[in-house]
Specification:
411 residues, alpha/beta, six-stranded mixed beta sheet, 10 helices, binds flavin-adenine dinucleotide
Length: 411
Amino acid sequence: MRTGHDIAIVGAGLAGACAAALLARHAGIEPQRIALLAGELPGASAPDAPPERRVVAISRASERVLRACDAWARLDLARLCAYERMRVWHLSTAPASEAGLCFDAADIGEPNLGFIAENGALVRACIDSFRDAGGSLIMGQLVGAGFDAGGVRAQCTDGRELAARLLVGADGAHSLVRECAGIAARTHDYRQLAIVATVRSERAHQNTAWQRFLPTGPLAFLPLFDGSCSIVWSIDEALAPELLACDGAQFGERLQAATGGVLGAIRLVSERASFPLRSSAAQSYVASRCALIGDAAHVIHPLAGQGANLGLLDAAALCEAVAGASAQREDPGALRMLRGYEQRRRTHNLVMDAAMSAFQVGFGADFGPAAWLLDRGLSLVNRSATLKRVFARQALGTAGELPRLARARLT
Ligand SMILES: Cc1cc2nc3c(=O)[nH]c(=O)nc-3n(C[C@H](O)[C@H](O)[C@H](O)COP(=O)(O)OP(=O)(O)OC[C@H]3O[C@@H](n4cnc5c(N)ncnc54)[C@H](O)[C@@H]3O)c2cc1C
């Protein structure tokens, strides 16, 4: 069976689901002419269920994008945790309460820096918004795609063929759309794993995102709505098997030692999961009748929790480019218009990737001049109100040029 659409989006992760909802509501294209191909959908959690293990730090700019696609209003706000400050410190400094860098939303007159949200809940809210707007949700996996001057044909596992004028690759780090469009990607293996788990700490998290840089990789504690924390422990791959295999009590002790005891005793309350850490950057975000967004276009180190935020900004910028074309009655797959999308996003994302790699290498130093400089740097920034405001703006996601859908006065 062949079905025809203006736009087909492959992949219902956060970037794809948000792009679908934005396009259905803001691109000036009939929503039923937009298809979202979803390999799988996250299940709904009961209101009193424990937090999902996969959570993301959502910046205030991303909140704005999620409001624009009518997903924010569909979230259970009681399951979001607003974080008000970040504490960052290095191995060789005293625990975060005494040294290192602390920047606070109050320094810039904001109530918070962003929210820790469950990834599945965000995806579901975007998909519900897309369906309610009249978009076509198609369950299936992409197995191949062919492009020509007139359009694109995408083949799915059930033998269905989708014809469209634009194919959006939102199918994650190992994007098949990217491969079918002949776009190469440069990858870098950090030789680290990220261990993710939910924990409870003896001392309250104080609505603070905690991050300690260790020579073996950064360790983050993200505050959750029920008082627990989600940890992301990036660790050299040779050391990870032991941390994954030790029992829960030992793992808690290791976490307490790694944080210098700043949150007291730590208790593991979920299974541990691990992800290999690689960065990747597509050599181009667009080709004739094809655009890449989210992890299909770029994967960065999770140390600053920015990957999902970049994907949401991609979705907003692509939607604005398509809306511009549709206002001029132009083809949504026209390369000239797609290049405009790429120009707005690629440099921004490359700068973020380079910054994450530099932080990852720089903060890994455990002794000598590099460690001394880092400690001096952190405390210098901490003493400068201006520099702290710069950091706080980065966390809000409001630094640099933003898509219109992500711009708004805060508070
Ligand atoms: C440990 C860890 C912690 C992180 N923490 C944060 C954070 O705090 N804040 C933040 O902003 N980012 C964070 N990130 C990054 C963030 O999770 C990713 O950047 C983001 O989820 C990518 O979203 P995406 O939609 O582009 O891709 P994905 O989430 O990978 O979604 C891709 C979707 O495409 C589907 N798909 C794949 N192939 C096909 C196919 N052939 N046909 C149909 N569908 C297909 C998949 O099933 C999936 O649903 C973290 C990453 C890691 C590893």
